[in-house]
Amino acid sequence: MKEVSKLMDYRADIKVLDATLRDGGLVNEFRFTDDFVKALYLANIRAGVDYMEFGYKGDKSMFDVDKFGPLKFCDDDYIRSIVGENNTDLKIGIMADVGRCNYKEDIHDASESPVDLIRVATYLHQIPTAVSMIEDAKNKGYEVSCNIMAISNARESDIEAALDILGKSPVDVLYIVDSFGSLYPEQVVRTINIYKEFADKYNKKLGIHAHNNQQLAFANTIEAVGDGVDWLDATYASMGRGAGNCAMELLLGFLKNPKYNVYPAIQFIEKYMPAIRASGAVWGYDFQYMMTGLLNQHPRTAIEFTKEGREDYSEFYKEILAQE
Asked: Does residue 39 sit in the same domain as residue 183?
Protein backbone atom coordinates (compact mmCIF):
# COMPACT_ATOMS: atom_id res chain seq x y z
CA MET A 1 0.00 0.00 0.00
CA LYS A 2 1.09 3.53 -0.70
CA GLU A 3 1.64 5.96 2.15
CA VAL A 4 -1.48 8.00 2.83
CA SER A 5 0.50 11.20 2.31
CA LYS A 6 1.26 10.16 -1.27
CA LEU A 7 -2.44 9.77 -2.01
CA MET A 8 -3.55 12.99 -0.31
CA ASP A 9 -0.88 15.30 -1.70
CA TYR A 10 -0.16 16.12 -5.34
CA ARG A 11 2.86 16.50 -7.60
CA ALA A 12 3.02 19.49 -9.87
CA ASP A 13 4.69 17.29 -12.51
CA ILE A 14 1.52 15.23 -13.09
CA LYS A 15 0.12 15.50 -16.62
CA VAL A 16 -3.32 14.16 -17.55
CA LEU A 17 -3.87 13.17 -21.17
CA ASP A 18 -7.32 12.66 -22.66
CA ALA A 19 -7.27 9.77 -25.17
CA THR A 20 -11.03 9.65 -25.79
CA LEU A 21 -10.91 10.55 -29.47
CA ARG A 22 -8.00 8.23 -30.29
CA ASP A 23 -8.70 5.12 -28.22
CA GLY A 24 -12.43 5.75 -28.31
CA GLY A 25 -12.25 6.24 -32.05
CA LEU A 26 -11.33 2.59 -32.39
CA VAL A 27 -14.91 1.61 -31.50
CA ASN A 28 -16.75 3.92 -33.92
CA GLU A 29 -14.33 4.26 -36.85
CA PHE A 30 -13.46 7.75 -35.57
CA ARG A 31 -16.86 9.05 -36.62
CA PHE A 32 -17.29 11.83 -34.09
CA THR A 33 -19.29 14.92 -34.95
CA ASP A 34 -17.52 18.26 -34.98
CA ASP A 35 -19.88 19.34 -32.18
CA PHE A 36 -18.73 16.40 -30.02
CA VAL A 37 -15.04 17.12 -30.66
CA LYS A 38 -15.42 20.82 -29.94
CA ALA A 39 -17.39 20.14 -26.75
CA LEU A 40 -14.75 17.66 -25.59
CA TYR A 41 -12.01 20.20 -26.29
CA LEU A 42 -13.81 22.80 -24.19
CA ALA A 43 -14.53 20.28 -21.41
CA ASN A 44 -10.85 19.41 -21.24
CA ILE A 45 -9.93 23.08 -20.93
CA ARG A 46 -12.42 23.63 -18.12
CA ALA A 47 -11.39 20.40 -16.37
CA GLY A 48 -7.71 21.41 -16.40
CA VAL A 49 -6.62 18.45 -18.54
CA ASP A 50 -3.08 18.94 -19.83
CA TYR A 51 -3.10 17.13 -23.21
CA MET A 52 -5.86 16.11 -25.63
CA GLU A 53 -5.04 13.36 -28.10
CA PHE A 54 -7.04 13.95 -31.27
CA GLY A 55 -6.47 10.61 -33.00
CA TYR A 56 -4.06 8.90 -35.37
CA LYS A 57 -1.88 10.23 -38.15
CA GLY A 58 -2.93 7.35 -40.42
CA ASP A 59 -1.41 6.85 -43.86
CA LYS A 60 -4.12 7.61 -46.43
CA SER A 61 -2.47 5.25 -48.91
CA MET A 62 -3.07 2.39 -46.44
CA PHE A 63 -6.51 3.24 -45.05
CA ASP A 64 -9.73 4.02 -46.92
CA VAL A 65 -10.49 7.66 -46.19
CA ASP A 66 -14.21 7.07 -46.81
CA LYS A 67 -14.37 4.32 -44.18
CA PHE A 68 -13.14 6.47 -41.30
CA GLY A 69 -13.81 9.82 -39.73
CA PRO A 70 -11.21 12.61 -39.97
CA LEU A 71 -9.51 11.75 -36.68
CA LYS A 72 -8.07 8.58 -38.19
CA PHE A 73 -5.81 10.94 -40.15
CA CYS A 74 -5.63 14.13 -38.03
CA ASP A 75 -4.96 16.64 -40.79
CA ASP A 76 -3.69 19.88 -39.34
CA ASP A 77 -6.47 21.83 -41.04
CA TYR A 78 -9.15 19.70 -39.38
CA ILE A 79 -7.63 20.08 -35.92
CA ARG A 80 -7.29 23.81 -36.47
CA SER A 81 -10.98 23.99 -37.45
CA ILE A 82 -11.78 22.79 -33.92
CA VAL A 83 -9.14 24.53 -31.79
CA GLY A 84 -8.28 27.59 -33.86
CA GLU A 85 -4.95 28.92 -32.60
CA ASN A 86 -5.53 27.06 -29.31
CA ASN A 87 -4.50 29.95 -27.11
CA THR A 88 -5.05 27.85 -24.00
CA ASP A 89 -3.04 25.76 -21.55
CA LEU A 90 -4.34 22.56 -23.18
CA LYS A 91 -1.83 20.96 -25.53
CA ILE A 92 -2.78 18.86 -28.57
CA GLY A 93 -1.39 15.39 -29.27
CA ILE A 94 -1.69 12.81 -32.03
CA MET A 95 -0.55 9.19 -32.26
CA ALA A 96 1.73 7.92 -35.00
CA ASP A 97 1.71 4.12 -35.30
CA VAL A 98 4.93 2.52 -36.53
CA GLY A 99 4.25 1.04 -39.97
CA ARG A 100 0.86 2.73 -40.34
CA CYS A 101 1.81 6.32 -40.99
CA ASN A 102 3.81 8.32 -43.49
CA TYR A 103 5.48 10.39 -40.80
CA LYS A 104 8.16 11.99 -42.97
CA GLU A 105 5.58 13.66 -45.22
CA ASP A 106 2.37 13.85 -43.19
CA ILE A 107 3.81 15.23 -39.95
CA HIS A 108 4.75 18.84 -40.68
CA ASP A 109 7.01 21.13 -38.69
CA ALA A 110 5.55 22.01 -35.30
CA SER A 111 5.74 25.68 -36.19
CA GLU A 112 3.17 25.03 -38.94
CA SER A 113 0.90 22.73 -36.95
CA PRO A 114 -1.63 23.03 -34.10
CA VAL A 115 -0.13 19.81 -32.67
CA ASP A 116 2.27 19.93 -29.72
CA LEU A 117 2.90 16.24 -28.96
CA ILE A 118 3.62 13.23 -31.18
CA ARG A 119 2.90 9.89 -29.51
CA VAL A 120 4.87 7.13 -31.23
CA ALA A 121 3.25 3.69 -30.78
CA THR A 122 5.45 0.66 -31.35
CA TYR A 123 5.90 -3.02 -30.68
CA LEU A 124 9.24 -4.27 -29.44
CA HIS A 125 10.33 -5.61 -32.83
CA GLN A 126 9.75 -2.15 -34.37
CA ILE A 127 12.00 -0.15 -32.03
CA PRO A 128 14.53 0.96 -34.70
CA THR A 129 11.76 2.53 -36.76
CA ALA A 130 10.26 4.04 -33.63
CA VAL A 131 13.58 5.75 -32.90
CA SER A 132 13.63 7.14 -36.44
CA MET A 133 10.12 8.54 -35.92
CA ILE A 134 11.08 10.01 -32.55
CA GLU A 135 14.11 11.73 -34.04
CA ASP A 136 12.03 13.04 -36.95
CA ALA A 137 9.39 14.48 -34.62
CA LYS A 138 11.95 16.10 -32.31
CA ASN A 139 13.75 17.62 -35.28
CA LYS A 140 10.40 19.11 -36.33
CA GLY A 141 9.98 20.72 -32.92
CA TYR A 142 7.51 18.45 -31.10
CA GLU A 143 7.34 16.95 -27.66
CA VAL A 144 7.51 13.17 -28.15
CA SER A 145 6.37 10.16 -26.16
CA CYS A 146 6.78 6.47 -26.98
CA ASN A 147 4.21 3.79 -26.16
CA ILE A 148 5.65 0.26 -26.18
CA MET A 149 2.58 -1.90 -26.72
CA ALA A 150 1.76 -5.38 -25.42
CA ILE A 151 4.48 -5.42 -22.76
CA SER A 152 2.53 -7.90 -20.64
CA ASN A 153 3.65 -10.79 -22.82
CA ALA A 154 7.17 -9.56 -23.51
CA ARG A 155 10.37 -10.86 -21.94
CA GLU A 156 11.83 -8.57 -19.31
CA SER A 157 15.22 -8.65 -21.02
CA ASP A 158 13.63 -7.48 -24.30
CA ILE A 159 11.87 -4.61 -22.53
CA GLU A 160 15.14 -3.56 -20.91
CA ALA A 161 16.96 -3.64 -24.23
CA ALA A 162 14.24 -1.53 -25.85
CA LEU A 163 14.26 0.99 -23.00
CA ASP A 164 18.01 1.35 -23.26
CA ILE A 165 17.73 2.10 -26.99
CA LEU A 166 14.84 4.53 -26.46
CA GLY A 167 16.64 6.16 -23.55
CA LYS A 168 19.44 7.19 -25.90
CA SER A 169 16.90 8.76 -28.26
CA PRO A 170 15.48 12.29 -27.77
CA VAL A 171 12.08 10.94 -26.59
CA ASP A 172 10.58 12.86 -23.66
CA VAL A 173 8.21 10.29 -22.14
CA LEU A 174 8.30 6.49 -21.96
CA TYR A 175 4.87 4.92 -21.61
CA ILE A 176 3.92 1.73 -19.80
CA VAL A 177 1.06 0.30 -21.87
CA ASP A 178 -1.16 -2.51 -20.57
CA SER A 179 -2.60 -3.26 -24.02
CA PHE A 180 -4.44 -6.39 -22.95
CA GLY A 181 -5.67 -5.16 -19.57
CA SER A 182 -3.96 -8.13 -17.97
CA LEU A 183 -1.66 -6.51 -15.41
CA TYR A 184 -2.37 -6.44 -11.69
CA PRO A 185 -1.17 -3.56 -9.47
CA GLU A 186 1.74 -5.64 -8.15
CA GLN A 187 2.88 -6.29 -11.72
CA VAL A 188 2.51 -2.60 -12.54
CA VAL A 189 4.87 -1.79 -9.66
CA ARG A 190 7.43 -4.28 -10.95
CA THR A 191 7.12 -2.89 -14.48
CA ILE A 192 7.51 0.67 -13.23
CA ASN A 193 10.70 -0.30 -11.42
CA ILE A 194 12.12 -1.64 -14.69
CA TYR A 195 11.13 1.49 -16.63
CA LYS A 196 12.27 3.82 -13.86
CA GLU A 197 15.82 2.47 -13.98
CA PHE A 198 16.15 3.68 -17.56
CA ALA A 199 14.04 6.81 -17.11
CA ASP A 200 16.34 7.93 -14.31
CA LYS A 201 19.45 6.97 -16.25
CA TYR A 202 18.43 8.95 -19.33
CA ASN A 203 16.33 11.67 -17.65
CA LYS A 204 12.97 10.69 -19.15
CA LYS A 205 9.44 11.00 -17.79
CA LEU A 206 7.19 7.96 -17.36
CA GLY A 207 3.56 7.55 -18.41
CA ILE A 208 0.88 4.87 -18.14
CA HIS A 209 -1.90 3.82 -20.49
CA ALA A 210 -4.16 1.19 -18.93
CA HIS A 211 -7.02 -0.94 -20.31
CA ASN A 212 -9.94 -2.09 -18.20
CA ASN A 213 -10.38 -5.78 -19.07
CA GLN A 214 -10.18 -6.79 -15.40
CA GLN A 215 -11.61 -3.51 -14.06
CA LEU A 216 -8.13 -2.46 -12.97
CA ALA A 217 -7.38 0.46 -15.30
CA PHE A 218 -8.08 3.08 -12.62
CA ALA A 219 -6.43 1.03 -9.86
CA ASN A 220 -3.31 0.50 -11.96
CA THR A 221 -3.18 4.17 -12.89
CA ILE A 222 -3.33 5.44 -9.31
CA GLU A 223 -0.85 2.72 -8.32
CA ALA A 224 1.47 4.24 -10.92
CA VAL A 225 0.89 7.75 -9.53
CA GLY A 226 2.11 6.59 -6.13
CA ASP A 227 5.23 5.14 -7.73
CA GLY A 228 6.32 8.31 -9.50
CA VAL A 229 4.66 7.99 -12.92
CA ASP A 230 3.75 11.49 -14.07
CA TRP A 231 1.86 11.15 -17.37
CA LEU A 232 -1.57 9.59 -16.97
CA ASP A 233 -3.91 8.58 -19.81
CA ALA A 234 -7.66 8.50 -19.34
CA THR A 235 -10.85 8.66 -21.42
CA TYR A 236 -14.28 10.08 -20.71
CA ALA A 237 -16.68 7.34 -19.54
CA SER A 238 -13.75 4.95 -20.13
CA MET A 239 -14.41 5.04 -23.90
CA GLY A 240 -11.78 2.98 -25.69
CA ARG A 241 -11.03 -0.21 -27.57
CA GLY A 242 -12.73 -3.26 -26.10
CA ALA A 243 -13.06 -2.90 -22.33
CA GLY A 244 -11.99 0.74 -22.49
CA ASN A 245 -9.51 2.70 -20.40
CA CYS A 246 -9.02 4.45 -17.10
CA ALA A 247 -12.06 6.70 -16.62
CA MET A 248 -11.27 10.40 -16.80
CA GLU A 249 -13.97 11.20 -14.26
CA LEU A 250 -12.42 8.78 -11.75
CA LEU A 251 -8.91 10.10 -12.31
CA LEU A 252 -9.85 13.78 -12.03
CA GLY A 253 -11.83 13.00 -8.89
CA PHE A 254 -8.79 11.28 -7.39
CA LEU A 255 -6.04 13.77 -8.20
CA LYS A 256 -5.66 16.41 -5.51
CA ASN A 257 -4.14 19.15 -7.63
CA PRO A 258 -6.64 22.04 -7.48
CA LYS A 259 -6.08 22.77 -11.15
CA TYR A 260 -8.17 19.67 -12.00
CA ASN A 261 -11.95 19.89 -11.86
CA VAL A 262 -14.14 16.81 -12.29
CA TYR A 263 -17.41 18.72 -12.75
CA PRO A 264 -16.88 19.66 -16.43
CA ALA A 265 -16.14 15.99 -17.14
CA ILE A 266 -19.41 14.97 -15.50
CA GLN A 267 -21.28 17.60 -17.51
CA PHE A 268 -19.74 16.40 -20.77
CA ILE A 269 -20.49 12.75 -20.07
CA GLU A 270 -24.09 13.51 -19.17
CA LYS A 271 -24.71 15.49 -22.34
CA TYR A 272 -22.71 13.63 -24.98
CA MET A 273 -21.87 10.04 -24.07
CA PRO A 274 -25.41 8.56 -24.15
CA ALA A 275 -25.73 9.60 -27.79
CA ILE A 276 -22.40 7.95 -28.63
CA ARG A 277 -23.65 4.67 -27.16
CA ALA A 278 -27.02 5.08 -28.87
CA SER A 279 -25.22 5.44 -32.21
CA GLY A 280 -23.96 1.86 -31.83
CA ALA A 281 -20.52 2.35 -30.31
CA VAL A 282 -19.83 -0.48 -27.86
CA TRP A 283 -17.11 -0.51 -25.22
CA GLY A 284 -16.60 -1.27 -21.55
CA TYR A 285 -16.01 -4.13 -19.16
CA ASP A 286 -17.74 -7.37 -20.14
CA PHE A 287 -17.12 -11.09 -19.65
CA GLN A 288 -15.42 -11.63 -23.00
CA TYR A 289 -12.90 -8.85 -22.35
CA MET A 290 -12.32 -10.11 -18.83
CA MET A 291 -11.45 -13.52 -20.28
CA THR A 292 -8.85 -12.21 -22.73
CA GLY A 293 -7.41 -10.10 -19.91
CA LEU A 294 -7.14 -13.12 -17.63
CA LEU A 295 -5.35 -15.05 -20.35
CA ASN A 296 -3.13 -12.10 -21.34
CA GLN A 297 -4.41 -12.16 -24.92
CA HIS A 298 -5.10 -9.42 -27.45
CA PRO A 299 -8.81 -8.52 -27.23
CA ARG A 300 -9.41 -8.94 -30.97
CA THR A 301 -11.28 -12.23 -30.39
CA ALA A 302 -13.46 -10.60 -27.74
CA ILE A 303 -14.14 -7.66 -30.04
CA GLU A 304 -15.29 -10.07 -32.76
CA PHE A 305 -17.41 -11.95 -30.19
CA THR A 306 -19.08 -8.65 -29.31
CA LYS A 307 -19.71 -7.66 -32.93
CA GLU A 308 -21.34 -11.03 -33.60
CA GLY A 309 -23.72 -10.51 -30.70
CA ARG A 310 -22.69 -13.78 -29.08
CA GLU A 311 -23.60 -14.62 -25.50
CA ASP A 312 -22.11 -18.12 -25.21
CA TYR A 313 -19.38 -16.98 -22.84
CA SER A 314 -18.32 -20.41 -21.63
CA GLU A 315 -17.88 -21.63 -25.21
CA PHE A 316 -15.86 -18.53 -26.02
CA TYR A 317 -13.64 -19.18 -23.02
CA LYS A 318 -12.92 -22.68 -24.26
CA GLU A 319 -12.12 -21.29 -27.74
CA ILE A 320 -9.58 -18.77 -26.53
CA LEU A 321 -8.17 -21.19 -23.96
CA ALA A 322 -7.32 -23.49 -26.88
CA GLN A 323 -5.18 -20.69 -28.33
CA GLU A 324 -2.87 -20.74 -25.32
From this structure: yes
